[in-house]
Amino acid sequence: MKVKVKLTFFKSLRFRIMVLLVIIGIVPCLLTERVIVRSYESRAVELRKINVKNQCDILGNQLMEEGYLEHQQSETINKELSLVSTIYNGRILIINESGRIVKDTYGIDEGKYVLSEEVIKCFEGEDTSSYDKKNSYIEQTIPLTDPKSKHIEGVMLVSTSTGEIVDSIAFLEHRGSLLMLAICLLVVVLGFVLSKVLVKPFARVGKAIEELTDGYLDEEISVPDYTETQMISSVFNKMLKRMKVLDDSRQEFVANVSHELKTPMTSIKVLADSLAGQENVPVELYQEFMQDIAVEIDRENQIITDLLSLVKMDKKASELNVEKVNINEMMENILKRLKPIADKKNVELVLESYRPIVAEIDEVKMSLALTNLVENGIKYNIQDGWVHVTLNADHKYFYVSVADSGIGIPQESLDRIFERFYRVDKSHSREIGGTGLGLAITRNAIVMHRGAIKVKSEEHKGTTFSVRIPLNYIA
Hints:
alpha+beta; Beta-Lactamase; Helix Hairpins; Heat Shock Protein 90; 3 domains; five-stranded antiparallel sheet; five-stranded mixed sheet; histidine kinase
């Protein structure tokens, strides 16, 4: 359990914020410390070179004035050479024009010859200097020029130690390390505290959501500390409202199903009890009761059939049996099947087709959906009314419009007519045999085909359903 808690902490936003704060706090300090130390080293070496060169330039002028390259007996010059080499903890070599060492402050290489690249370059008039960081010394060459002819007659090769610079750098690095350790500890502590403070609003969001998991309350969560928490709160509140609507819809659906299935059964039981409670029932009455029972059974069967159709519509669209279908012929067949129903109410049934249309659809499901629309237009129409069906298409969709001269739909009911078992006028719907599932089935079938359905209606002025379906089905 402890291991799991630790792993959860390492995956948490708080840990990542803490790491980010630590990185932001420590990395710049480390870089700054490195830059300062390196800058100090570079500056110290450069100053050492300048100071040594200035000293050697003065000393070189004195050497040339006293002809030291030919005669090295000058006590003054020798003392000054020894003093400079001692001050800078270095070594000075005086080299004549032939490359021979005429003076070595260490006294070990006098009389030897030097043919190094630096010395040759110096004789050619190019001052050279180099810094050997590994061995901690600076090597410089200073030309010895004749004051009159300006001819380079010798070279002063100076090697000076940078030990004190190295010691200073080591001291700075040691102090810097101590300072960095203190900064790291401070940053880690501050990162731990700040990360806890920063994620606190998210914890409040989680707690608020957790408090609502036991049931849907009318309250809404609100954590406006950050834009993100405000956005999460807003999205959750929208989801909560949607879940409330779905829960209410589910409860209403269950209640409606129970009621719709129970009503025919109650009627059948009443009729059956009436027959069972009477003796010597006339054949005519017996036949009348049996006909009523048959009607109730048919009604029960119709409800169950529609429910099964709806369940099938709720399945994945991958179960669609899609094929190329002639939409014009399909609509003609639908109207042909419904014409007897229209003739009974003397309703004019008209199909207007503007062009030949072939589309990729599941013919059974789409035929059922469009049949429901046309049949509703007939059933909820007035005597001697009309139902006009128009069929059209463009390069991407085909369009079906079903308009009628019927009783219309109240404005407040338009948003709910596609809900299962919803009826605008329940008593009138039962009179004409409606189950309240037809439009729900229609909408599901259209949505499965990636289509859309819209309705416009006005009471006592008719209703128009507009359907749009893609010509080519894309799974």
